[in-house]
Structures are given as structure tokens and as C-alpha cells.
Write a structure and sequence with these properties.
Helices cover 76% and strands 2% of the residues. The longest helix has 35 residues.
């Protein structure tokens, strides 16, 4: 049901934002549209809470990570849309939420033996960081789409979406916030590793990809604020960093749970 609701909303926004011709209507979500997004979001959140936190054992894997990421992504979009015009995001974000929401029912995930508060804080920080990077990737994708349509002189399409400069400022604002949460995720992860194993880092695939993603986004932010990187350069660095973020957590968990079939 949640997936169908997300897909129905995605079709609505595609029809009214992307396919619409002529002069754009007043920007922003209408009250009924905001309420319509809140309905599947609330149900999705309840299912995640029941499946992850209420169950007798904590099971978490790539399916749960993707579902939480997209739930947080939709929630963050709703919050950000209160302050900035984000027209055109919905047909990109909502189908991803529709795909991710039923995954925990198909893949149970791995049993997580650590139930301490520190681990839950670390997990929450990681999910917020990954969700923010998902929003950043959608910013970059929408920027590329608008720029391409402008080069094709498709002004009716571009007129229904935020200006490129607005999207660019929003992109780097989201990346900067996500970078802070990623830094906190790495810091809490190192603290947990030190408490459990007596050293700060375990050099496995997850650690290597996490450090590479942190370095990639650090370079992007330095390049932006020191050298003025923008456009396709920013898009390439954003995609590269997002891929590394996914490989650090979701990709590693997918290989272990699905390809290697380890519970």
C-alpha cells in the first residue's frame, strides 16, 4: 500500500510539474499535496519502527538501510520545502521511496548483536547523513536535467522548476550539512570500534569506502568555496561521493546478505 501511494503521488507530480505546459503556477506544495505525502510517510515510518525497533531482535541490513534512507529523504524534503521552492523533486524522490519501502519485507537483514545507546546514535547519524546525500544527489540530477532542457530551448519545462542558481545553492547547503553528519558518523563509529576492539579503525571494505566518501565530499566542499566549482564538476564529484557512501554501507550489506547469503 505504501509503495502504491508513493507511486500515485509521483505520477501526480510528474503530470502537474514536469509535463505541464505554459506559465508555471504558484511554486510550492498545496496543503492537500503536503497532507497526501504525509499519509504514506507516516505509514512507512510506522512499519519501519515496528520492524526495526519493536521486534525482539535488532535486524538491520541493506533493505532496512535503503528504506530508512528514503523515508528520511521524503521527510527532509517536506521540511526543506517549507523554506525553499523544490518544484520537480517529487517525481525523482517518490518513486525511489516506492521501491525502497517494501524491501524490508523481502530481505530480513542481519542480526545486530549490539543494542547499546551508542550504537543506536551511530546508526541514526549514519541514516541521516545518507538520506541528506540522497537529497543532494537528486538536487544534482535535477540541475543536470534543467540545464539539458535549457540547452534544448525547452523553456516551458524549465519554467516549471526552480532556477539553476537556486538549485546549486541548495545542493551545496545540503552537502555541507550531510558532511557534518557523515563526520559525526565516522567519529562515533571509531569510538565504538575502539570500545569493542581496542583500536579506532578496522580496515575492511566498509571503513575504506566510508573514508573515501568523506575525503571526496571534503574535496568537493573545498573546491566549491575556494575554487568556485560548479556545474558539471560539482555533479561529477557529487555522484562519485554518493556512490562511495552507498558502497560503504548498503553495497557491503547487499553483498554479504544477498550474494554471500550470510544472515
Amino acid at each position: 500500500m505504501v509503495s502504491a501511494m508513493y507511486l500515485g503521488l509521483a505520477w501526480h507530480f510528474w503530470s502537474t510539474r514536469w509535463r505541464r505546459r505554459g506559465a508555471p503556477a504558484a511554486p510550492g506544495l498545496r496543503a492537500w499535496e503536503r497532507a497526501a505525502i504525509l499519509a504514506p510517510l507516516a505509514l512507512h515510518g510506522w512499519l519501519l519502527y515496528r520492524g526495526i525497533f519493536i521486534s525482539p531482535e535488532l535486524r538491520f541490513g541493506f533493505a532496512q538501510a535503503l528504506s530508512v534512507m528514503m523515508w528520511l529523504g521524503v521527510a527532509l524534503y517536506l521540511v526543506e520545502s517549507l523554506f525553499y521552492s523544490l518544484e520537480g523533486f517529487e517525481p525523482l524522490l517518490l518513486p525511489l521511496a516506492a521501491i525502497a519501502s517494501p524491501l524490508p519485507a523481502l530481505f530480513a537483514g542481519r542480526n545486530i548483536p549490539v543494542h547499546g545507546t551508542e550504537f543506536k546514535v551511530h546508526l541514526a547519524l549514519a541514516m541521516i547523513a545518507y538520506s541528506l546525500f540522497t537529497i543532494a544527489l537528486l538536487h544534482a540530477a535535477l540541475m543536470a536535467l534543467v540545464e539539458r532542457r535549457l540547452h534544448q530551448r525547452n523553456t516551458s519545462f524549465a519554467g516549471n522548476l526552480p532556477p539553476l542558481l537556486t538549485l546549486e545553492h541548495s545542493l551545496f547547503r545540503v552537502i555541507a550539512i550531510a558532511f557534518v553528519f557523515l563526520t559525526l558518523t565516522l567519529a562515533t563509529g571509531m569510538a565504538l570500534t575502539d570500545a569493542m576492539f581496542g583500536h579506532l579503525l578496522r580496515f575492511n571494505h566498509e571503513t575504506v569506502f566510508a573514508l573515501l566518501s568523506w575525503a571526496t565530499f571534503a574535496c568537493l566542499l573545498v573546491g566549491r568555496y575556494v575554487y568556485g566549482w560548479r556545474g558539471r564538476t560539482a555533479l561529477r564529484w557529487t555522484i562519485a561521493g554518493f556512490v562511495l557512501v552507498l558502497l560503504a554501507n548498503v553495497g557491503t550489506a547487499f553483498v554479504v546478505e544477498v550474494l554471500l547469503r550470510r544472515a
